[in-house]
Sequence to fold (326 residues):
Amino acid sequence: MNLKPLKGQHHVSAITANAKKNYEFYTKTLGLRLVKKSINQDDTSVYHLFYADERGNPGTDLTFFEIPHAGHTYKGTNSISLTSLRVNSDVSLDYWKRRFEELGVEHDEISHQSGRATLRFQDFEGQRLMLVSDEKNRGVPGGKPWDNSPVPVEHGVVGLGPITLTVSVAENTAIVLRDVLGFKETRSFPSDIAGQPDIRVFETGEGGTGAEVFLEERSDLKEERPGRGSVHHVAFRVEDENELQKWVKWITENRLPNSGFVERYYFRSLYFREPNGILFELATDGPGFETDEDFNSLGENLSLPPYFEAQRESIEAKLKPLDTKE
Fold:
């Protein structure tokens, strides 16, 4: 089938138990813009919050489903174990280290991974995150931080970086990345854990930090039990709806159980699980988040796709109020 290469990361969706504290951390501490306050379209009783660059460009979105009673995450295999966020320079990591110290954010020291400067940290629920410098990066361009962010634009997050998949049997996932999704395995680097295999690097599209997946095999861990602070799925970029329909056929031909075409209003999607059980999504670049809100007021009000609008009153009655106009 004549498929165009996937263009890189589209978004990562994670779980929070507290939308208010989540909003405060990702906008006030990390300086991301809330570009859409919406609902989980599969469970309209909970929020779906989208944080990104100034307008939610594809490849910059970190999203959260609020599940108020989500339990503790027991970290392990067959999971998306680390989400990285891109910044423009090594100097920016010095800024962030100071900022984390001032604000009491749990973090490691600045180090290097696969030739790039990095800084690992966690949010208030233990979400595993890492800043990665784009100073030596070549590949998919980043986005543009919001001018009204509390973080100086020159140090702001410009998008999603490499996504780490931790699995029990790496080759099972590698086959899907390589033979089904068209990623190229380009290099590897040593694991931080003694006795474990090197971490394998896969790239798609233009490559670089915005189009890499790190594949880590761990024999010393049990399977992850997800909860608050875990990642639900990772989505990769598809150019448009026509291209997505080709991917629906291709994924089905490869006998991977999948959702088929799904209308998400802000983009169109396809979901499937790779053999280790990690949920992948393919999502279109458009229409985007300005479909139903003006650029200047993105994220200020509860946005519902048209097919939920008739239920607005009952949906709002079930949601705990969340003021995002500050």
